[in-house]
Amino acid sequence: MSDSDDDIFKKKKPSKKKIEQQQKQKQPQQVEQQPQQLKQELNQPQQQLNIHKNPKVVIYCKVCTFPVEFCSYSKAPQECKEWLKTSFKDLYANLYPEDLKLEQEKQAAQQQPQQEQQQQQQGQPPEKKKKKKVKVTESEMVYIKVKERNRSKFITTLTGLEKHGLDIKEAQKKISKKFGCGSSINEKGDIELQGDLSAELEEWLPKEYPTIKEDMIAIQEK
Amino acid sequence: MFKKLEDLSKPTLLSKTGVKELKQSFNDQYPFFKEIEDEVFPKKANIQSFKLRSEYKVEIVQVDKDYICFTKEDLVIPHLKLVHKFPDLLIKQQVDAGAIKHILSGSDVLAPGLISQGGQLNPAQKGQVVGIYGEGKENAMGIGIMTANSDDIKKDPKGHAIQLVHHLGDALWQLSFK
C-alpha cells in the first residue's frame, strides 16, 4: 500500500469511492472529538449554541440503538453498559461514575470472589440460549410466504399446517371466513390467500391452534 | 404513529419539483433550515421516497440511505437523527425525569410534566412541531405536535399538551439501523 497507488485510484473513479474514503477517514476523528465536546459543554454550555451550524456527532449504542444517555431505559441495560465499557471508556466514566467507584472497590478488596462470579456469569447465558433453540425443530415449523403479484396486490401461502395434525380444508375455510378473503389449496397442499395477511396470521394462529407457538412461525417475503 | 412499518412500498426517486416543494415547506416551517440546507440535501444526492400502503398520507424521505424526514398531511417532520445533528432546528420542550420512561414507550406528553420542576415550557403555538427533551439528558428523545398554545397550557395545566409523532425506539427509528 503506497500513496501513489491511492492517487491513481482516485483519479480513475472519483465520485463514489472518494466519498466512502472520506467517510472512513472522518469516523475515527469524530470518535476522538466526542469526549472533547462533552467537556466543553460541561464547562461552557452557552457558547456551544453558536457553533451548531456544523452537524453535531451523537454516539449510538450498538446494542439498543439509543443515544448512549438513554441506555438505562432500554430492554437490556447491562449489555449496553458492558459494550460502552469496552468501546468508550471516557463516556462510561462520565455516565456511570458510581459504577466505576463500586467496581474499583470490589477489585481492590475481593479479587478472588469476582473471578468466581465471572465464571458463573459465563456459565449461565449459554444454557438459556440452548433451551430456547432446542424447543423448535424444523418439522414443527409453519412458514408464511408473501409474494407480490402486482404493485399493490399480494398472495400469502401457508405451509406446514398438516404437521400439527390439522385438517387443511377446515383451516382454509376458517381463515377465509375470519379475514374475508378468497382462498384456495395448492397442488402441493398449501393454503393460498388473497392479500398480505402475514401480520394478522402471526397473531391469530397461536390463539386459534394452541399447538402452534409463536416461535414456530417464520415469515418469508419475496 | 409508527408502531408497525410492515407495509412499506418500494422506494421511488423523488422528482426535481418534489425536492423543490420539500425544501420550500421545510423553509416555511423551520427558519433555521436555510443555514443547513446544503448539508441536508447535497446537490448530487440520491433522494428516494417510501409510501405507506395503508395508513394516511405518509411519505418517508431518504437521502443517500439516511432517513431524513417524513411528511404527514401538510407538515414536514424531521427524523430524530437529523434533530440530533442539528438541535436548533426545532423548538425545545423539556419534561421532568418521571415522564421519560412513558414517552420512550410511546405515550403523549401531558401538561403537568412540562410545568413541574425539571420541566421547561418554551413559547410555541398550536400545531407547531417541537422536539421533546428529558431532564438531565442532552439529546432529543421524541418529536411531537403541540395540541394547544403554550400560554393556555400555563393557565390550565391539565390533559394532553403534545401529541407524540416519532420517538426513540419506534419502528421508524429501528428502520434506520437495519
Describe the 3D structure.
- The complex is a heterodimer of chains A (222) and B (178).
- With 222 residues, chain A is an alpha+beta fold.
- Among the domains of chain A are: 56-104, no CATH class; 138-221, 2-Layer Sandwich (Translation Initiation Factor Eif1).
- Chain A has 9 helices and 5 strands; from the N terminus they run H-H-H-H-H-H-H-E-E-H-E-E-H-E.
- Chain A has a 5-stranded mixed beta sheet, covered by helices on one side.
- In chain A, a hairpin with a 5-residue loop joins strand 1 and strand 2 (154-159).
- Chain A is elongated.
- In chain B, strands 1-2-3-4-5 form a 5-stranded antiparallel beta sheet. Chain B has a 5-stranded mixed beta sheet with strand order 6-8-9-10-7.
- In chain B, a hairpin with a 2-residue loop joins strand 4 and strand 5.
- Chain B has helices spanning 16-29, 33-40, 80-85, 100-104, 111-115, 150-155, 171-175; strands at residues 12-13, 47-51, 58-63, 66-72, 75-78, 91-95, 109-110, 129-134, 140-146, 160-167.
- Chain B folds into 2 domains: 12-84, Roll (Nuclear Transport Factor 2, Chain: A); 87-167, Sulfate adenylyltransferase (Roll), CATH 3.10.400.20.
- The mean pLDDT of chain B is 84.
- Chain B is globular.
- With 178 residues, chain B is α+β, with helices and mostly antiparallel strands.
- Chain A binds chain B through residues 41, 49, 52-53, 55-56, 58, 60, 64-67, 69-70, 73-74, 151-152, 196, 198-199, and chain B through 4, 6-7, 9, 35-36, 39, 53, 81, 84-88, 100-101, 104, 137-139, 141, 168-169, 173-174, 177.
